[in-house]
Amino acid sequence: MxxxxxxxxxxxxxxxxxxxxxxxxxxxxxxxxxxxPAAVTGILRMLLNSNAPMCFLWRPELTYFYNDAYVQLIxxxxxxxxxxxxxxxxxxxxxxxxxILERALGGEFCSMxxxxxxxxxxxALEKVYFTYSLLPxxxxxxxxxxxxxxxxxxxxxxxxxxxxxxQLRLADRIRPLTDPDEVIASAxxxxxxxxxxxxxxxxxxxxxxxxxxxxxxxxxxxxxSMSGAILRLDDFGPVLAGAIRxxxxxxxxxxxxxxxxxxxxxxxxxxGVRSFMGIPLMKSGALRAIVNIHDANCHDWTADxxxxxxxxxxxxxxxxxxxxxxxxxxxxxxQSKYIFDSMAEGFAVLDSDWTVLRVNGExxxxxxxxxxxxxxxxxxxxxxxxxxxxxxxxxxxxxxxxKAEIVEMPYAFPDGKQGWIEVRAHPALDDCLxxxxxxxxxxxxxxxxxxxADRRKDEFLAMLAHELRNPLAPIGAAATLLxxxxxxxEHVRRxxxxxxxQVRHMxxxxxxxxxxxxxxxxxxxLDNASLDMRDVVSDAVEQVxxxxxxxxxxxxxxxxxxxxxxxxxxxxxxxxxxxxxxxxAKYTPEDGTISLAADVRDAQVxxxxxDNGIGMAPELVSRAFDLxxxxxxxxxxxxxxxxxxxALVKHLVELHHGSVECESRGVGKGSRFTIRLPRELxxxxxxxPQASDDLQAVSQRVKVLLVDDNADAAAMLAMLLEAxxxxxxxxxxxxxxxxxxxxxxxxxxxxxxxxxxIDGNALxxxxxxxxxxxxxxxxxxxxxxxEKDREDSMAAGFDHYFVKPIDTKELVSLLSGAVGRxxxx
Length: 825
Hints:
single chain, 825 residues, alpha+beta, Beta-Lactamase, six-stranded antiparallel sheet, globular, HATPase_dom, transferase
C-alpha cells in the first residue's frame, strides 16, 4: 500500500501505526500531520519506534497517542482511546493521577514507583500498580506542549512482594506454636485479614472424602463460627464436590449466579455464604484438608488471592503436623528414638539442670562430637563458648514462658570452620528443654551471594541506563543543529562525526552485552589462524591510542624483535588487548604511564599490561573478572563502563587455552594484567600487511538496488554509496523493488529484512528466481542480529549479512568485488 508523504510519520508495521494512517485528520484540532510542530513529530516518531510502553498527551485537549507496546496496558480501552482526550478513557483515575499530571504540564519531571490506581477492567474496578515517569515536552518557545509517559504495570511485582511478606509473617507466626489447633486458628485469622473476607474455615477430610470436619476457624463477626461442624461434601453439588475430590481449587464469585453452584444456593445461604473459594490439599494422592474462604458479599477472586490461599493450606498442614509430632514427642518420649535418629536435623533434650539426656545422630555429626562426649554431660561444660550468648537467653526464655523460640547465630565448629547454626527450642515435660538445630552456613552464604548479586545487578542496570543515555544527548543536539541551522560544509562534517562517534559508542556497548552472552554460553566459534602477537598488539594499540593521547598519557611499548607466534582468532585477541588497555587508560590519571610488553617465555607467549593508575583493593582484585564487577562508583561515573570487559577478556583467553591474571598492590598503586597463551612452535615468516581504514572511491561503478522502508536510513546509505562512485536505486517496498529490478537489472541488491509487504527473505528468493537478478550479489542489511536470523537469510539466498549499524568501509570494500560477479551454482 502506498501512503501519502503527509503520513510518513506513521509509516511502518504495527497496529497503532495502521490505525493512525487510517485516521481522519481533517477534523483534528491540531490539523494534518505535516502541520504539527517538530517537537510533537519528534516525540511521536520516537514513541512509535520504541519497544517500551509509552504514551504522549498533547495539550490542550491532552490528545492520547501511544505505541503498540502500550496497548497491553490500556487493554479493552484500545483502540477507542487513540487520538481522543485522555480523560475520556481514564476518568476513574482522575482523582489520583490529575495532580501528578498537572505538575508535569507545569514543566516538572515526575517519576512514581508502584503507585496504586483503581481502573476499570472487565466491567469492574480493579486495584493495580504502575511505575512510570512523566516527562514534559517543550516546543521551540519553551512552552510545555505535552507530556511523554513511559511506564509499566507492576501489579504482579507488588502483589508478589505482598504475598512473600505475608508468607514470611505466617511462617514466623505458626512456626513456634506447639498446639495444632493454635496453628490452624492463627493461620485462618492471618489469611482472613489479608484477604479482607468474612470467614476462613480449615476442615480436615474424613473417610474417602465424604465429610469435612471443621476445625478451628476465624470470622470477622458478621458470620458465626463453623468450628466443630461436620459437612457432607455432596451437599454442595456434584460439580463442586467432584472438583474438590480431584484436588482442583474452586473460586465462585457469586453462588446465586454461577452455574456450578446456583442449584445449591440455599445450602450456601444457610451458612451465610454469597461467595467462596475452596482450596483442597492432596497428600499421597488422597484429599486430606480443605480451606474454605467465605464472603457474605460477592467477591471477584484474583490469582494472587488463590496463590496465597494455596500456600497457606500447605504451610498450615505442615505446621499442624509438626505441632502434632512435637506433642506426641513430649507425651511418648520412650517411643521416639527412631524418629529422632532418622531426622535430617540435629535434636537433643536437656533436663532441668542442663544435662544432655538425648541427642540424635545428625546432632552428633553437626557438633562433631561422639555420644560418650555428650550424653549425661552438662550442656555448658560441653559448649562453654555458648555461655552468656543469645542462645542461653533463648533457652531460659523458653523454660520461663513455655513457648517455643527460634534463633540463628554464628558458630565456630570444632574443626575451626566458622559458620552459622539455627536452633529451635521447645519446652518439654518436667521443665526439660528439647531443641532442634541445623548447620545453615551454606544457606547464609547463599543469601549473602544473592544480596551481592542483586546489588551488582542493580548497579549494572543503573550504569547501563546511564551509558546508553549519554550518547543520546550529543546525537540529539547534532540532529537539532542539522535541522534548524544552516551550516557550512566544515560544520556539517564535524556534526556528522559527532553522530558517528556516538553511534559507534552505543554499538560497542550493545556488542559487549551480546558478546558476553554468546561467549559465556559457548556460542562463539574462533576463526583460528597462525598469528604474530606483535601484529595483534599493534592493532590494539592503534584502536586505543586516541584515548591515551587525549589523556596525555605515555604508552611504553616493548615488543620482542622476533616473531611471537600463537594460534588464535585475530579479531578476538585484539578485543582482549583493547579491553585491558581501555581499562588502563580510563583508570590511570592524565599524564600517567601505561606499559605493554609482549615476549616468549618457554612454551608460552606473555602479554603484560601495567599502569600507575588508581589500582584496586584486594577484594576487587579477587573478583575483577566477574560479570558486572567494578570498583565503587561515584555519582559522576567518570570512568564509565558496564563491568563486562574483563569478564569477556577472561572467557576469550580461556577459549584460546590461555589464562589471564590481575595484580594490584592496593588503591592508588596501579594495576597489572598478565595474559598467557600457548606458543605456536612454527613461527611465521613475515607479518601480514595491514588494511587501510580509509574509505576510498571505487574504480568501477556498480548498480545497486537499495530496499529499506526506513526512508531516512535508505537516504543516508544511498548518499554514502553514491559518494563512493556507485549508482544507487532506492525503493521502500518489496513489490516496487521487484518491478524496478526487472527493468534495471542491478548487480547488487541491499535488502532490509523487516519490510512491510513481504519480508526481505521472501524478496531475496524472488530476486534469485528472476533471470535479471539471478546472478546479483544479495546483501542483507538488518537490525536482526541473532544467529537464527542469519541462518534463515543465508538459506533464502543472501550472499552476505550486515547488522545495523553497518560497517560502511567493509560494505564499500565488498561492493568493489561485485563487478563482473557470477554467482556460483
